[in-house]
Specification:
Elements: H1 12-20, H2 28-39, H3 54-65
Helix pairs in contact: 2-3
């Protein structure tokens, strides 16, 4: 079962921009990290190999949580 970023809680404005960059399917680290970052306010430590999408796993939910 392949999840989409919207299934993980990322809002439409961000998923549309990801789709424009041809990024549509989250990696394993993103599937596990994004919901946690969006829901809890505690620290999260996640380990994954280089190139697996860790920056987006933390960055996308943080962008969403910014109160503009």
């Amino acid at each position: 079962m392949s999840k989409r970023f919207s299934d993980l809680g990322i809002e439409a404005s961000i998923t549309e921009r990801l789709a424009a960059l041809q990024i549509t399917v989250p990696t394993d680290i993103q599937k596990k990290s994004i919901p946690v970052v969006l829901q809890q306010k505690e620290d999260l430590v996640a380990l994954a190999k280089t190139g697996t999408g860790k920056t987006a796993a933390f960055g996308l939910p943080l962008l969403q949580l910014i109160d503009v």
